[in-house]
Amino acid sequence: MNAPIVIVGAGQTAAQAAASLRQGGFDGGLVIVGDEPHPPYQRPPLSKKHLAGSFAGERLGLKAETFYTEARIDLRLGATARAIDPRERRLGLADGTRLAYSRLLLATGSRPRALALPGAGLGGVHRLRTRADVARFQGELRPGARLAIVGGGYIGLEVAATARELGLAVTVIEAADRLLSRVVSPVVSRFFHDLHLTHGVAIRTGAGVEALEGDERVTGVRLSTGETLGADMVLVATGGLPNAELAAEAGLAVEDGILVDEACRTSAPGIFAAGDVARFPSRRYGRRIRLESVQNAVDGAKAAAAAMLGESPLYDPVPWFWSDQYDAKLQIAGLSTGYTHAEVEGDPASGSFAVAYRDGGRLLAVDAVNWPRRHMEARRALAEEPPIAVAP
Amino acid sequence: MVKITFVDAGGTARTVEGEVGSTVMETAIRNGVPGIDAECGGACACATCHVYVDEAWREAAGEPEPMEEDMLDFAFDVRPTSRLSCQIRVKETLDGLTVTTPAKQG
Ligand SMILES: Cc1cc2nc3c(=O)[nH]c(=O)nc-3n(C[C@H](O)[C@H](O)[C@H](O)COP(=O)(O)OP(=O)(O)OC[C@H]3O[C@@H](n4cnc5c(N)ncnc54)[C@H](O)[C@@H]3O)c2cc1C
């Protein structure tokens, strides 16, 4: 019964969970297994300051270098977890090691959705999730080069802004009829559309991608209109998928994410999940949700740590998120999905405004652009909304 | 290198070295100073790196920008000397800077 707590994945969720376990008084063995070569680091700068070259890799670390030894954390980097045996409570690693665990936290995060199209494997086709992805991509970023970005979500748009600052010619291709369509209202989409146009980004909305062209290296993007856009490199940024295969293969309940209860417990005893990979019941929104954000990594990890220590946390956060593009800071509080009306506050033309989303009288979310005060107020107001039952 | 002293809410002081060009928040994180969460990593998006700047250093550290002030107003136990440490750049003139961390963040 003295087996350690094992955490799979060495990202922001893992780092916070490990810190919270120690703060919570857990004195036993603590192992983190992560397949990347780096100790847990921040991802947000990867599409922003780090990509721009103004924020060195050493600054990305989430903890002091000495933290892991001082907190007696057995940090195993470059190690991949391959299989879980929930009955024996053992985790198998790719190198054949088998680790016994008393409790297991799955913090495996998410990965970029791959383009299932001809040419997706060509040279010069990139994705952006890890430091290694950035290193590969950065090596090709030359002023004047033509970059096509497939996907007009946050990551695509942040990279567009950074690439413009680096002097590249940038085109954003988005299948929906507007940018950021899954997350913000048309007013906010319009604002960012105009912002990118002003900075010289070409934007093609309502444009499907048929294929990436080229022999060894990509030379262009063929659109559903039949037209081909010339490109020296392509970034695919079409959303994330949870790294839930390990859990699914072990028989845990998985549905676009590892299903957990309000205390981050999966369907298997002793196994917990948090961060990008977990789908949890939100009474705030009356449904199960999966979030990909720093807020959810940090707060989910704290809740999972408490649950692993035998407490009964209720993880039901007010989600929040930010995105930096040029001089614009978008801060989102809540989730606007399913809103019945959206009210604009302030004047988008002034560069500082907000949109409040409601379902009848219930406040669902507020998007604030260059208006942090409105964002923080919204977080408080959202915390006051009464809970709704989540259907099982 | 610039010396920065962090005093926690209980009065314990820790003096560490900060690199010019980085921030007071980063200096705390890299040296494992407790009492600063810095969830957003310095994007001025979370208000969890709140500190009180020692009165003697207030002027040298500078006044918060409007964006920072907005976020600060929502931090725990805000005082006139409150700053978000991610927005204080480490520079030679701050050698000896002393800041106190609040009882809690957020
Ligand atoms: C470019 C970019 C910009 C972002 N910007 C923002 C932002 O501005 N604001 C914001 O709130 N959020 C942002 N995010 C999202 C935020 O970074 C993530 O939500 C957060 O990193 C999730 O943390 P996590 O620990 O759950 O997952 P991850 O950070 O994905 O960590 C999981 C780790 O587990 C590893 N792993 C997976 N499977 C295994 C296995 N079987 N064995 C061993 N290791 C495994 C993965 O390789 C990875 O290292 C951004 C993300 C990216 C990629």
TrEMBL record, chain A:
Source organism of this protein record: Salinarimonas soli
Give the required cofactors: FAD
Q: Which PANTHER family match?
A: APOPTOSIS-INDUCING FACTOR 1, RIESKE DOMAIN-CONTAINING PROTEIN-RELATED
Gene Ontology terms: cellular component: cytoplasm
The UniProt record lists the FAD/NAD(P)-binding domain at 5-299
Q: Which residues form the Reductase C-terminal domain?
A: 320-386
Give UniProt keywords alphabetically. FAD, Flavoprotein, Oxidoreductase
- What is one Pfam family matched by this protein? Pyr_redox_2
Gene Ontology MF, one: oxidoreductase activity, acting on NAD(P)H
Q: Does the keyword Manganese apply?
A: no
Q: Which domain of life is it from?
A: Bacteria
Its name, as the record gives it, is Pyridine nucleotide-disulfide oxidoreductase
TrEMBL record, chain B:
Q: Which PROSITE patterns match?
A: 2FE2S_FER_2 (PS51085), ADX (PS00814)
Q: Which cofactor does it need?
A: [2Fe-2S] cluster
| 2Fe-2S ferredoxin-type domain location | 2-105
Q: Which GO terms describe its molecular function?
A: 2 iron, 2 sulfur cluster binding; electron transfer activity; metal ion binding
Arranged from A to Z, the UniProt key words for this protein are:
2Fe-2S, Iron, Iron-sulfur, Metal-binding
Biological process (GO) annotations held by this record are: P450-containing electron transport chain
Q: Which InterPro entries match?
A: 2Fe-2S_ferredoxin-like_sf (IPR036010), 2Fe-2S_ferredoxin-type (IPR001041), Adrenodoxin-like (IPR001055), Adrenodoxin_Fe-S_BS (IPR018298), Beta-grasp_dom_sf (IPR012675)
Family according to the record: Belongs to the adrenodoxin/putidaredoxin family.
Q: What is this protein called?
A: 2Fe-2S iron-sulfur cluster binding domain-containing protein
Q: Which organism is it from?
A: Salinarimonas soli
